[in-house]
Design brief:
single chain, Growth Hormone, Chain: A, 14 helices, globular
Length: about 375
């Protein structure tokens, strides 16, 4: 089930990136919000008609997940035109802060709605949030600049251009390596975290909900401190520092144990500090990627990054599920935690460690693609 959530990103990301570079991004975002609204609306409607079946839920989930992957690609490509390249760090901090607020409040609100009106009708509220999002984006009055040179050619070659651009660029290549390998090891957490918390550590659903909320709190704090960290260290060192901190904190998961409160405390620290350091990395990785990539390439580069993340995430969720079946959940988490720490140590040796803002758009690297 965890692996299935990676499939839409793997199958659609490169093509979504190519489409994003061929069209205006704001209307595309509105269309995707409306698409998610209509898809999610099917669930309460079918429930009212007593026609709701499991295969319909799976289909809606896959389609909504696919649109979600494409939405993130388009959203990150649209942001530089919306806020200006001189305000990329501020714009991304606000975007991630908004996501952290949702992660903090969302589980509690949705849990209350499920209890009050039932799961199918709680999804109605989820559908309405996408409608609100579409109306909000439609209210933006800042004109979107025309695409400089709309790419020509067939869809498949244009989709592959994003993958080549990422692999050939001296800064994008190590960023893509981190996304790929961290998603590979992150597959262990995607597949095993809930089982580990509920069955191995026996923490219970309430404790698990609190842990998820603490992750959102950590992400929200990171949006507030990211700018001072970058100002003090520089964006390159901020990336390496936050990634190394995430690797160290990740060791707390397989170390958790020794009674309820010790186990809960270890996971609480891992969620709070892990999401804090991880979000600092994500904010500045996005800023760095947007800074060096020309506007006309942003969709394909974002799509290429998501493709590598989806591919290795799919492998990781299946592989670590098999490792857990053979050796146990804790050993699988140990492998993933040590792997992430080694990845952080490798990242310190890349050219990104020395990068400073502001960065110029790297037109030369993209001409050769």
């Amino acid at each position: 089930m965890a692996a299935a959530t990676q499939l839409p990103g793997l199958l659609l990301s490169a093509h979504a990136g190519a489409l994003t570079d061929r069209t205006r991004r704001r209307p595309l975002l509105i269309a995707m919000d409306l698409g998610r609204f209509l898809l999610l609306l099917c669930v309460p409607v079918l429930s009212l008609l007593h026609r709701l079946a499991l295969w319909q839920l799976v289909l809606v989930s896959l389609l909504v997940a696919g649109i979600g992957f494409a939405y993130q690609i388009t959203d990150q490509a649209y942001l530089p035109a919306l806020v200006g390249r001189d305000r990329l760090e501020q714009g991304n901090r606000l975007v991630y802060a908004a996501g952290a607020v949702g992660e903090t409040a969302g589980p509690t609100v949705m849990g209350a709605l499920v209890q009050a009106v039932g799961a199918p009708f709680a999804i109605l509220f989820d559908a309405l949030t996408n409608l609100v999002s579409a109306l909000t984006i439609a209210s933006i009055r800042r004109p979107e600049p025309a695409l400089a040179t709309p790419p020509e050619g067939e869809q498949l070659p244009r989709a592959a251009q994003g993958l080549r651009a990422v692999l050939r660029h001296p800064l994008l290549r190590p960023l893509a390596t981190v996304i790929a390998v961290s998603n590979l090891f992150g597959g262990a957490f995607a597949a095993l975290y809930e089982l580990y918390a509920l069955r191995t550590l026996q923490l219970g659903p309430l404790a698990l909900g609190i842990l998820v909320t603490l992750g959102g709190v950590g992400a929200l704090i990171s949006a507030g401190i990211s700018q001072p960290v970058v100002r003090r260290l520089g964006i390159g060192r901020a990336l390496t520092f936050s990634m190394f901190a995430s690797g160290i904190v990740g060791l707390l998961l397989p170390l958790a144990g020794g009674g309820f409160w010790l186990a809960f405390g270890a996971l609480a620290l891992a969620q709070l500090l892990g999401d804090l350091s991880g979000t600092i990395y994500e904010i500045n990785e996005t800023v760095l990627r947007q800074s060096v990539t020309p506007d006309r390439w942003l969709g394909r580069v974002n799509g290429g990054m998501q493709f590598f993340g989806g591919l290795f995430g799919l492998v990781g969720t299946v592989a670590f599920g098999l490792v857990a079946m053979a050796a146990g959940t804790r050993p699988a988490l140990w492998i993933a935690a040590v792997g992430n720490l080694l990845l952080a140590l490798w990242f310190m040796s890349t050219p990104i460690h020395q990068v400073q803002l502001p960065l110029a758009i790297d037109e030369e690297s993209f001409r050769a693609v």
